[in-house]
Predict the structure of TetR/AcrR family transcriptional regulator.
Amino acid sequence: MEIKGRKLKEKQERYNAILEASEKIMQADGLYGLNMDLVAKETQLAKGTLYLYFKNKEEILAALSLKSRNLLFEAFAKSIKKSKTPIEQLKAIILANYQFFKKYPLYFELVSLYEINNKLTETEELQQSSYKISQMVVEIAQKAKDNKTLNPNIDPVNFSICLWGMTVGMIQLIKVRGAIIKQYQGISEKEILSSFVAIVENGIRD
Amino acid sequence: MEIKGRKLKEKQERYNAILEASEKIMQADGLYGLNMDLVAKETQLAKGTLYLYFKNKEEILAALSLKSRNLLFEAFAKSIKKSKTPIEQLKAIILANYQFFKKYPLYFELVSLYEINNKLTETEELQQSSYKISQMVVEIAQKAKDNKTLNPNIDPVNFSICLWGMTVGMIQLIKVRGAIIKQYQGISEKEILSSFVAIVENGIRD
Amino acid sequence: MEIKGRKLKEKQERYNAILEASEKIMQADGLYGLNMDLVAKETQLAKGTLYLYFKNKEEILAALSLKSRNLLFEAFAKSIKKSKTPIEQLKAIILANYQFFKKYPLYFELVSLYEINNKLTETEELQQSSYKISQMVVEIAQKAKDNKTLNPNIDPVNFSICLWGMTVGMIQLIKVRGAIIKQYQGISEKEILSSFVAIVENGIRD
Amino acid sequence: MEIKGRKLKEKQERYNAILEASEKIMQADGLYGLNMDLVAKETQLAKGTLYLYFKNKEEILAALSLKSRNLLFEAFAKSIKKSKTPIEQLKAIILANYQFFKKYPLYFELVSLYEINNKLTETEELQQSSYKISQMVVEIAQKAKDNKTLNPNIDPVNFSICLWGMTVGMIQLIKVRGAIIKQYQGISEKEILSSFVAIVENGIRD
DNA sequence: AATGAATGAGCATTCATTCAT
DNA sequence: TATGAATGAATGCTCATTCAT
């Protein structure tokens, strides 16, 4: 038992070490800068060993994507605590998403990795993590509905899906075009975000 | 004159042949499945010949992206003709965007290629094509404002930016998650889209 | 006759234009930066046309090498006029060679192109141009011998060969290592050259 | 320990095999005939494997250049043992250099690879190997000076530089023009070399 | 003579994955 | 379990030369 436990712990540590190394590499070299040679070097493990912990490179990405989604979930959960009304909470979630992107650009990329890359397919676990986030929004929307602050024509589940799509789209746009919009049209990221939030708020309030 | 014309035409044909072959390949193997060997094989041209028509692989992508944006612009232009009021036109544009994606999934990907891939930089021409689309939306929003049908707090330019971000985000979501949402939550793509349109409409109407 | 003459002149002009363009390119991009595409562009001629004037790329190089050798010959001829005694003339030739290298580094490279690259074989004409230079040195050495200023054990022809080998070797060394020698050993190009000249002078004086 | 040792030995053997194959190829196809495909074929290794042993093609060249310089150093060291006086030693070095060229033409080319090709930059190690050779000559020249057999005006360091430049230049000349000189002027390589040695000897003796 | 489009072998380098030890 | 050496297909791009018009 003793030994088994230690072994298990060591294994867990290795697993985490690989993920941390991968993160570090991606932070430095970007999402596509990750390669197994670098991971091996960074972890001080043999390349073959990596494959004992992860079936392939994609699985590392999946694990990090999962981690990112969980972090995002936490960020959302935290953000809604400060707000009183459900509508304020929904707005808080948008802001939290944006701040998450600013603070952890890599994690944001990882969260939406599967939204961008066709080739990859989400695992059950990843789908679950998405569902959890979605469900949080659904519940708040439901409260807003009970509250009569949400437009009664809006279905909470539908809305939750839309909020995710719109917000990710907006952040991606800011990421890629933010600078150029600022330069040519003089509109700051914050302003864009505010406009977006305003549209959504107007769009859903009763 | 005769000969020169024929030559020119042949050259134009080759150019188009390369683009068409590239499209075909991407349709089969995805955006990142494109490679110069395949293009050569598909066009029956020598690899070197490709480089007489396009400086590098990226230029092929840029040409196709430009083509896609122009097609999208046309689709938008066409879509607004059928609608009477500016607000209806804005809604029509969202729908046109969705239909464009359904009809030409590859083109849709190409339109936002530069929105997704950090490494690529848009040429002047590509920026122009984006600007043209954006400007169309700005003008309609302005009419809606003049019209008193647009919420006076909304700035047409800001709105145009947001509309693009939100819509692309929504379509991407539908692309990647549409099937799974249908399966697990029983909500169809159309319903999601309708919800999105409704939110936007509510969000911007006076 | 008239027409024939004009044609001939035009042909000669084209020929020269190709050489000048090649020089310009090599000045900018180095000896190995020369390629037929660039020459075509620079001369405004079709690539195929180049091959009407030069059998292949190598022939362009050969022509330029010949030109360089002729220039060097002129430089030598000029340099010896200022000196009175044969020994002084020989020294002047070494200096002229060095100055030629400093003034026209490309020409210097071209002169010794065939001394460096195994694959190339000199044409009859190129050999002649070398012979001419060599002969000039032989004659001066002979004068020095008649003069009793040259060590009687030295054969003028042998010496001429050696002078060329030694001098080119020294200049090449200066070219490649000059900077590093200056940096680490504090010896300037001029000093190296002076030492070399001194050794040769001592080595051949009676 | 046993296994580790064997592994290490095998690795060393592969490393050497790659170098030997590269040598063989260069012997056949010249310095610039080396390419990674041929090396892979010759060694029966996969192309990727080569890159486990050498970071890139240049590193193979550097390793061979280093090897060549070390061999040359040995040849010099050996050559001076047979001579009594410093001046004789200096002459022996010239001869050793020539014999080295005759025996290992490829190695001779590799020694001066970096003297010819501008694009390449010497590693620290390569510079060291050059310095070692140079230093040997400096020391002998110093002895000759102490000895009063060297012209007091000659600085040992300067001389060492010159000796290298002159000798390499002479050997290159012999390499490229030796045959033609023999044919047209009836002077043998040995005679040229003797003349050169004589000039140097006269040039430096007190 | 002049054109210039077409050729295609050539090349250095990368990297996810495997497998014998 | 762990290793790490080996694999080899994949890829973007170049350029001297040819040849039909």
User: Anything to note?
Assistant: Residues 7, 10-11, 14, 40, 45-49, 52 of chain B lie near DNA strand E (CB under 10 Å from a C1'). Chain B has two domains: 1-54, 56-204.
